[in-house]
Amino acid sequence: MSQSVTIERFRRFPSEDFKEGDPVRPAVSKILDYLIGATPENVCHLSFGMIQKVAGLRDSEEDHRTLYRTISYITGERTQLLELVFEYVMDDFAYILDEEEEADYKSTGLFSDPRTGVNVPDSAQHIHIYFKASRAVLQK
User: Fold this and answer.
1) What integer pLDDT is reported at residue 5 of this predicted model?
2) Where residue 137 falls among pLDDT bands split at 50, 70, 90?
3) How far is CA 70 from CA 11, 26, 53, 116, in A?
4) Dihedral through CA 79, CA 80, CA 82, CA 88, nearest 10?
5) Per residue in 112-133, pLDDT tens?
6) Of 15-19, 75-79, 133-137, where does mean pLDDT reach its minimum?
């Protein structure tokens, strides 16, 4: 399937999945436009705040709900526009968790420093989440 066909499918999904007037629809559209127009290096480390800004959402309770619904949708099985990345950062050391480490961390809340194998007592303060564009988006 060509990239343009894939992108057009992505563009149709929100209107198929959300009612007219649902704020997720335009948010997804704005994010998709950004992802397609940006260079790969600009879409490999996206924060919640950056996605909020790109989606045109404000810092309000209602827009926060829309942001979380939008992120759930664009990282979900249907679209997979963005991939969720878990990164362990301690001082000047950064490490991307693999799928198994991520699953263990999600289920137990525990993480062992990959350099020492020792559990990190305050791992939640050192595990950071960000997003990156999926391969489907990067195949421009």
Assistant:
1) 56
2) confident
3) 14, 10, 13, 37
4) 150
5) 999 999 999 999 999 999 999 9
6) 133-137
Q: What would the DSSP string read from start to end of 13-54?
A: HHHHHS-TT-THHHHHHHHHHHHHHS-GGGGSSB-HHHHHHH
pLDDT at 3 (0 to 100): 59
Provide the residue type at 73 as one letter.
Y
Question: How far is it, in rounded angstroms, from Cα 140 to Cα 136?
Answer: 8
Amino acid letter, residue 59:
D
Question: Which two tokens mark 115?
Answer: 């350099």
Backbone angles phi, psi at 94, to 5 degrees: -125, 140
Q: Which residue in this structure is represented by tokens 């994010």?
A: 31
